[in-house]
Amino acid sequence: MIPLAFDYEVAESVDHAIELLGQHGDEAKLLAGGHSLLPIMKLRLAAPTVLVDLGRLGDLNYVRDEGDHLAIGAMTRHCDMERDSTLGEHCGLIAYTASLVGDPQVRHRGTIGGSISHGDAASDLPSALLALDANFVVKGSGGERTVAAGDFFEDYLQTTLTPDEVLTEIQVPKLNGAGWSYKKFNRRAQDWAVVGVAAVVERSNGSIGSARIGLTNMGSTPLRATAAENALSGADPSSVAEATSSADEGTSPSSDIAASDEYRRHLARVLSRRAVEEALTR
Amino acid sequence: MTQAPEKFVGGGVPRKEDPALVTGRANWTDNIKLPGMLHAVFMRSPYAHAKITSIDVSAAKEQPGVVAVFTGEDLLDEYEKHPRENPAAVTGYDVSLHDRTQGHSVTGETDGADGQDSDEPRSFVSWIVHDELKIPHHDPLAHDEVNFAGEPVAVVVASDRYKAQDAIEFIEVDYEPMDVVTDLEEAMTEGSPLAHEGFGTNEAYTWDLATGDIDEAFSKADVTVKGHYLQPRLIPNAIETRGVVANPDPVNGGFTVYTSTQVPHITKAVLSSYLGVPEQKLRLVAPDVGGGFGSKLNVYAEEVIALVLARRMGVPIKWIEDRSENYLATIHGRGQVQDIEVAADSEGKILGMKVNLLADMGAYLHLNTAGIPLLGAFMYPGVYTFPAYSFECIGVYTNKTPTDAYRGAGRPEAAYAVERIMDALAAETGLDPAEVRRRNFYEPFDEPTDTPAGIQYDSGNYQLTLDRVLELADYEGLREEQRRRRESGDPVQLGIGFSTYTEICGLAPSQVLSALGAGGAGWEMAKVQMLASGNVEVITGTTPHGQGHVTSWSQIAADVLGVTPDDVEVLHGDTAIAPYGRDTYGSRSLPVGGVAVHLAAQKVVEKAKKIAAHMLEAAEDDIEFEGGTFSVTGSPDQNVTMTDVAGAAYMANNLPEGMQPVLSEEYFFDPPNFTFPFGAHICVTEVDTETGFVKIRDYFGVDDCGPIINPTIVDGQLHGGIAQGVAQALYEEAVYDEEGNLTTGSMVDYLIPGAPELPNYTLERTVTPSTSNEMGVKGVGEAGTIGAPPAVINSVVDALSPYGITHVDMPASPWKVWQAIQDAQGQEAGTRDADRSGRPAQAVDSTDTEGGSTS
Lengths: 282, 855
Ligand SMILES: Cc1cc2nc3c(=O)[nH]c(=O)nc-3n(C[C@H](O)[C@H](O)[C@H](O)COP(=O)(O)OP(=O)(O)OC[C@H]3O[C@@H](n4cnc5c(N)ncnc54)[C@H](O)[C@@H]3O)c2cc1C
Hints:
heterodimer; A: alpha+beta; Uridine Diphospho-n-acetylenolpyruvylglucosamine Reductase, domain 2; Uridine Diphospho-n-acetylenolpyruvylglucosamine Reductase, domain 3; Enolase-like, domain 1; 3 domains; four-stranded antiparallel β-sheet; 12 helices; 33% helix; B: alpha+beta; Aldehyde Oxidoreductase, domain 4; seven-stranded mixed β-sheet; six-stranded mixed β-sheet; 22 helices; binds flavin-adenine dinucleotide; Ald_Oxase/Xan_DH_a/b_sf (chain B); oxidoreductase (chain B); Aerobic carbon monoxide dehydrogenase (Quinone), large chain (chain B); AldOxase/xan_DH_MoCoBD1 (chain B); carbon-monoxide oxygenase activity (chain B)
């Protein structure tokens, strides 16, 4: 429970952070809320020699209405998103999903940028962002780029971020009346999801126009339930159960002490059905 | 001092302890900082079973800040060159001094250097349950073999904890892995790997008990039911981890040891014995202690080593356990395989009960490891009376963290098995679960009453608590709702589960402890001293670590002496202040220690009355004592207050002839019998049959622990106790992989429920005074933990009974519940190779060992 020794640097700006990362190479790690990084350092599973603290970058804590989409600063804390009225109005899915992360202490420290950059498939926000077709703005010594959520996550704890890049902003399209839901299945309120399902459903003349489903903890990255999405497209609301029975297709959930892969697949199907049904009522 | 016309016992006096605790100003062991203090950190074995072929600490010694590094070998002479003390005569804890011929050290070597007890393995064991108990040699630091993952193998002493931790990485240990045994049932099969090869078996002991004619009971039976139940291993998780500071006293050549313990008195005896430090040279202090739940009812390797290092290095040594270590190196609880069988007549009246246990000792015996399951032996008959009982327990060694007392210690196991089997009997006879219980209850009794296990219950009125809880829960209404949900095929089914329990508290009559091999000395001491001001100090031998003794003992003393609780200070947890004491565990503090306070205070009043009579020039028989004032019968104007008397007793210039000065009285209370609180609980669950998720919707309890000293404290004990019972039933389990690694090694994997997982409890009380002490009090520290697990599991099984499911093992995780439904529906079972959380539940149609069978 005692980490190895490390140096600590305070980033005064995003550019300064990039500069510090450049100086220290991949020995350095950005520190946001610290609620993923510090636990693994205490267990000595990670041992960066330098921490570059983004904590003073207050200008990365925001939610802005940008017309067709919302922009969320990478250092926005879960608790701030939970209560943000702009998010509540235009993207209830993010506000609600943030409210299910860990416990109040975790939500007061953890950030959306950290949740995404850590690349843990068991995190809640990434699959919701996947279902929302969000974009991530990333800045590094080579300049700025925008990555679609669907292209960002590469493998277990692995993303397209290079060691000198900082995730600065998350852009989510407004829901514009689409129904949404997040179904998180965990044993205790404070736990990561055994399985989680995010759904965004557009209605069209009494049937389902299109549905996008993001899956939490069903593989080494957050995933889309593509087969179920296809089956739902244009479907009658009465056929949701049947359409979501393929929600686990193409997934590769792990087996651990919380669940077997088969049980996870079963949960993905049940939760997808419940999520789509709920989205249709919103 | 304030004259107190009112009484405080029974009132909701706020806990005196809380302001400091909730504002972070308590004096935890880790807050103790002494000049020149060094910090110890242990290196622990990553293997569950291995020979240590070499340890090289040379590089670690060179690390910055490191003062010393020791291996087990280095410290052997610490135990061997100092003649061991025998404190048993005064403390009753007979540590390692039995004339043992059985237990040889694993390596075959003996510790004969001290020339005495050469066959005797060095160990922490205190409770010698059986003449043939096999006791593994247990040195504080392993040297030639490790027997569980987490066993300490070396210790680094450095100027701070961080440097010590870093230096650990430079110690090189070569291990030669050995075969590992973790599973209890496998451990008892031919050819199983052996936890201690020197024993030739994993069996530590077999202990049995039989009353009545069990064969006749079963041959006469109309109905028999049997159950095969697993008790998960649990990790106690006191919020404050362990920690110790050992401080040498250069003036008297002795030591003060501060340690986060429930048992400073017992620790003093054990450390004295283990290390040959004369008892009078040891002072043990338990500062504020943040919980124990039984895990700190022990003396641990780290405490021994801290004292060894302080002796060897001549400086204060501190060690603070981190949470990862706490999971590996502090004792675990439970861990049993239970077989229970009941014979009954066609009316559901029990004729006999057979119980067979395998009990997981883990790798070594701690103080009471071997005895814990036997606390249950006497409680399997529960609140039911019948003519024949047989019990057998086999203690089993495994390469896992040692087990010992965990809240309830043996009794939750017993209550669980009997309450599960009562539901099976109800199902088999077609009776309502409440009715089958009622038919087997004792008639209400207020005299000691014999039980099938050969002991005597103090008092009981089980019908009353059951009747009341049925009313509270609106039992009929619940059954109606259940019927509706079943008929409509609601995916969320309702379960209603009962538990009518009793338990054994108030440890303990010294003679009984002795007869059980548990050392003896179950008395408790209290001293009540009135100061010159008339204020009061109560010295108690109990050692609170969250229970609120300071408040409760103040109330007790205040009522007897006619003062207010604020006039009373309670001193505890320091052997220099309270040299005598048997500490806190087994819900003993109130029925033994609190009663001692009451009796000592009465002695003070008796003496004060003599002085008052002398002061008032009246006959002692004519003196009345009421509300802190002594007055002459018939002339209330002639009076003196307790304050006046205390002052006079102190000044000693006008005392009755021959009377000694001051009002200070001691009482050593050795109870004539245990106490037996009881209660009836109903747990209402909603089971999502699609996901397997169990939600506790309501929890009703009617408990009887005799008269109440402080209702807020009693409620707190029940709330926390039920939470821990729910935790066992639905959430917690220490899971090991086949190599003996603890896979639930952190709070992320070991699921302790929090407030969101728990319902609002609806609790009431009845009051049936105990016959075991003058106050009639029974103790309530473990009641909730004992009553809750069967109520929860009975509820889950009740919800699932339409599927033909008759049992789900604890913890009833969603996965396990879902699997049980899958199995019951005859579908392909899930992939089970990764199921390390225990077995999926078994449904009737998939096994023949479960559920009822009619003979
Ligand atoms: C007890 C507990 C329970 C939790 N429960 C949940 C849960 O239920 N659901 C859930 O989703 N999460 C959960 N979390 C995780 C929590 O949400 C974390 O806060 C989050 O995953 C990481 O965010 P952070 O700000 O703490 O990042 P940090 O821990 O500071 O950083 C995580 C990683 O991301 C990198 N990083 C951080 N910010 C940036 C950035 N702007 N650009 C590039 N890289 C960056 C860091 O270098 C590090 O590698 C839990 C955590 C704890 C301790």
